[in-house]
Amino acid sequence: QLQLVESGGGLVQPGGSLRLSCAASGFFLGYYAIGWFRQAPGKEREGVSCISSSGGTNYADSVKGRFSISRDNAKNTAYLQMNSLKPEDTAVYYCSRISSSSCSGYVPRVDYWGKGTLVTVSS
């Protein structure tokens, strides 16, 4: 059974850091691009970052220089390191499998979603 399970969310103060994990099962993560999305209250889900099967990355402008995506194919896990967090980063963060090895045009190309993990940035 194919699954993506996120972990690592929580409450953090502005300026703090969190690392989200996305553990995959039922398929080999290394064959696919993996995307991280987020959905803030009252807003649409948006793409945050993507990593291709070859390790190429891209980021939304709002998180460039603060977030870093990575993957460990041996552990079948992807990560999102989030630094210098701001209140506007508060959202449910979702891991996704992209139906391709490439991140090109990844936002509408998700074929599997995790259930999400809540990140709250507040003092």
Keywords:
4-stranded antiparallel β-sheet; 123 residues; mainly beta
What does this protein structure show overall?
By secondary structure, this protein is mostly beta strands. The protein has no helices and eleven strands. It has strands at 3-7, 10-12, 18-25, 34-39, 46-51, 57-59, 67-72, 77-82, 91-98, 110-113, 117-121. Strands 2, 4, 5, 6, 9, 10 and 11 form a seven-stranded mixed β-sheet that branches. Strands 1-3-8-7 form a four-stranded antiparallel β-sheet, with no helix packed on it. A hairpin with a 5-residue loop joins strand 5 and strand 6 (57-59). It is globular and about 40 Å long.
**Helix/sheet category:** mainly beta
How many extended strands? 11
User: What general form does the structure show?
Assistant: globular
Q: Spans of 5+ residues with little confidence (pLDDT < 50)?
A: none
Roughly how many Å is the radius of gyration? 13 Å
Q: Helical proportion?
A: under 10%
Oligomer: single chain
Q: Alpha-carbon distance between the termini? A: 40 Å
Average pLDDT, all residues: 97
| Count of runs of 4 or more consecutive helical residues | 0
Order of helices and strands: EEEEEEEEEEE
Strand share of the residues? over 45%
* Largest sheet properties: 7 strands, mixed
